[in-house]
Design a protein that fits this description.
Order of helices and strands: EHHEHEHEEHEHEEEHHHHEEHEEEH
Bound molecules: pyridoxal-5'-phosphate
Largest sheet: 8 strands, mixed
CATH architecture of the largest domain: 3-Layer(aba) Sandwich
Oligomer: single chain
Number of strands: 14
């Protein structure tokens, strides 16, 4: 059997000769292989079969205890024991929230642009997704208020907002402090809840991340989704949700966990061991250093290589640079030229529900070392100049 016949192991598939800045994934070279291996050995030696049994419905106790201590240390509010549960990562949590907290026909508000794969998850549910524009300060909360008002007047049940307020995917922007407050107030007044996808919180490169929405609102207003996908490793398939005790109980008492127990119990036990022995801080710091260097390399190369009329904002965290091309230059039409030059990106229209953003594109700087990012920027600049003579 040749390697070409072997079944695929990872989601990531790279094409030879193309620097693929379309994948928003951590660099496998940076992932904590040895630390996971020794944590797994330690936990199996200590707790044996309990690590391989069905787990407690809310999630593995040691990991929950570490998370609560970590949140109490790094965020302005602590989480009570009944306000948090382990999830299988944010994708799983979004799906579960839609299953348990929405009904067919409900309106779900989303940012435009929004994380395109969250849109796919929500589209698996019979919901009505309504986009609201963002700008350089994040979601336009006044526009959101108007949209909610109009929808409610027309008799729609505005149920939830899905948002990535910190180091946004795809724009890299964090919602401003004023808008954070205005947003949680609006949610309370208008009676919808917020799903805060906080997947990039730990990956800050200039200053700590702004306070999460869930710390700014009374319990019940915000369900915050945290994930180990970017702060440890996506293959662990682990994250957490925090909300009101009532919301968390709904999840923990659901049929999924009643049948299968706490999700990904073995990996949660391994992650608990890794985190309680100092591995989390160690690796997060390494990731920050590596990704900061990559971000800076890409930004510097873009400044050198991109023709006049192109612009972007400096992301203070996360994985992405969002580029705006000169008006009229279509990123979808640009892509084959960029690939022919040896690099790839995701056209911005993929992150909108309604075809907006045709002159924008997303670059991920997480997967490649700095020198490759410089080459990618050179190739992108070349392709843009070709089309925008
Ligand atoms: C905004 C956002 N949410 C969720 C995810 C996926 O999270 P998880 O791996 O925890 O399912 C990603 C990954 O790219 C993301 O960018």
């Amino acid at each position: 059997m040749s390697i070409l016949d072997s079944p695929q192991t990872t989601q990531l598939q790279l094409r030879p000769g193309i620097i693929e800045l379309n994948w928003g994934q951590p660099d496998p070279e940076l992932l904590p292989k040895e630390a996971v291996s020794s944590a797994a050995a330690a936990v199996l030696a200590r707790v044996g079969g309990d690590a391989l049994s069905y787990g407690a419905a809310a999630g593995a106790g040691p990991l929950l205890a570490w998370l609560r201590a970590h949140i109490a240390q790094t965020e302005p509010q602590a989480v009570a024991a009944d306000e948090i549960a382990i999830t299988a990562g944010n994708s799983d949590a979004i799906d579960q929230v839609c299953t348990l907290f929405t009904q067919a026909g409900d309106v779900v508000l989303v940012e435009s642009p929004s994380y395109h794969l969250a849109l796919r998850i929500m589209r698996d549910h019979p919901l009505r997704l309504v986009p609201v524009a963002t700008d350089e300060h994040g979601l336009q909360v006044e526009l959101l208020a108007q949209t909610v008002h109009d929808l409610q007047r027309a008799g729609s049940n505005v149920r939830m907002l899905y948002t990535v307020p910190t180091f946004h995917n795809p724009t890299g922007v964090s919602l401003s402090a004023e808008r954070r407050l205005a947003l949680v107030q609006l949610a309370q007044q208008a009676g919808f809840f917020i799903v805060e996808d906080d997947v990039y919180r730990e990956l800050h490169y200039d200053a700590p991340a702004p306070p999460a929405l869930w710390t700014l609102a009374p319990r019940g207003t915000v369900l915050r989704l945290g994930s180990f996908a970017k702060s440890l490793a996506p293959g662990l398939r682990l994250g957490w949700i925090n909300g009101s005790a009532q919301q968390v109980r709904r999840l923990v008492d659901g049929g999924l966990r009643d049948s299968g127990g706490g999700v990904n119990h073995l990996t949660a036990m391994v992650a608990g061991e890794l985190c309680t022995t100092g591995g989390f801080e160690l690796y997060v710091q390494r990731f920050r250093n590596a990704y900061r260097e990559r971000r800076n390399a890409l930004l510097a190369a873009l400044s050198e290589q991109m023709p006049a009329g192109c612009s972007w904002q400096v992301p203070a965290g996360g994985f992405f640079v969002w580029v705006t091309l000169p008006a009229g230059l279509d990123a979808t039409a640009l892509l084959p030229h960029a690939e022919a030059a040896g690099m790839a990106f995701i056209p911005g229209a993929n992150f909108h529900l309604d075809g907006r953003g045709s002159n924008t594109l997303r670059l991920a700087f997480s997967l490649y070392p700095p020198q490759e990012l410089v080459h990618a920027a050179q190739r992108l600049g070349k392709a843009v100049r070709l089309l925008h003579a």
